[in-house]
């Protein structure tokens, strides 16, 4: 009987990253999962019949087409191109098992209209999400975030990143409420407004990450696996199957 250094229960993304990194370090890994698919709670379900089985409902209807043509993410997500997960994918060479595409763009809903989040200088100039003066102020904030280095107090511009709240930071740059909302939710990707009264360091990091990710492709900062999120844990699992 073969002996293993580690047994991993489940094939969620965290479990597969753990087992992949362990196998890269020469460990023998056994993966066990009761599900017929990779990914755990963040799996991509295919064929479509498996999704209906999972939620114990009848279907799918014939009008849905061939089940194998569907990949349904249980928890849909995009990845920032300069984010930690993408860096891990590149470092472990899991990218050889995956195909990605750049998402065409991102959008926000405001005042009854859908607006494209500006991705280029031309987009920003044409966008009606901000007025002309707001665009100048927002640009100053963006430059501040890009030049900010937590290890170099000279880049702080009299902002204490661990004490100054994000609300106070936005006020320093004289941002209007609309621009604050846009920056906090469409750029820094906060899920609520609680960040406004918290130290601004995390928001500065998020704005910087978004901007650096956007600079990689100039159309969108987001990547997505062509065949669904379930490909990610499957890719890591393949590291210890070779």
TrEMBL record:
It is found in: Cytoplasm; Golgi apparatus, trans-Golgi network. Its main location: cytoplasm. It comes from the Eukaryota. Keywords: Cytoplasm, Golgi apparatus, GTPase activation. GO terms for biological process: protein transport; small GTPase-mediated signal transduction; vesicle-mediated transport. One of its GO terms (cellular component) is Golgi apparatus. It holds the Pfam family GDI. GO terms for molecular function: GTPase activator activity; Rab GDP-dissociation inhibitor activity. Regulates the GDP/GTP exchange reaction of most RAB proteins by inhibiting the dissociation of GDP from them, and the subsequent binding of GTP. Belongs to the Rab GDI family. This is Rab GDP dissociation inhibitor. It comes from Seriola lalandi dorsalis.
């Amino acid at each position: 009987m073969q002996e293993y250094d580690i047994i991993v229960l489940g094939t969620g993304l965290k479990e597969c990253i753990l087992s992949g990194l362990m196998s890269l370090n020469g460990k023998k890994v056994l993966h066990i999962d009761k599900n017929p698919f990779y990914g755990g709670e963040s799996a991509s379900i295919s064929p479509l019949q498996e999704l209906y089985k999972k939620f114990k409902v009848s279907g799918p209807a014939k009008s849905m087409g061939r089940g194998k043509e569907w990949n349904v993410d249980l928890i849909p997500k995009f990845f920032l191109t300069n984010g930690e997960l993408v860096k891990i994918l590149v470092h472990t060479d899991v990218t050889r098992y995956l195909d990605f595409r750049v998402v065409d763009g991102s959008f926000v809903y405001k005042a009854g209209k859908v607006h494209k989040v500006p991705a280029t200088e031309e987009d920003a100039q044409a966008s009606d999400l901000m007025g002309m003066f707001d665009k100048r102020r927002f640009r100053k904030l963006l430059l501040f975030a890009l030049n900010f280095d937590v290890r170099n107090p000279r880049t702080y511009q009299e902002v204490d990143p661990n004490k100054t709240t994000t609300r106070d930071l936005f006020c320093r740059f004289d941002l209007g409420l609309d621009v604050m909302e846009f920056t906090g939710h469409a750029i820094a990707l906060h899920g609520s407004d609680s960040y406004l009264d918290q130290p601004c360091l995390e928001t500065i990091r998020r704005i910087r990450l978004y901007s650096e990710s956007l600079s990689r492709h100039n159309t969108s900062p987001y990547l997505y696996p062509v065949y669904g999120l379930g490909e990610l844990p499957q890719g890591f699992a393949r590291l210890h199957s070779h």
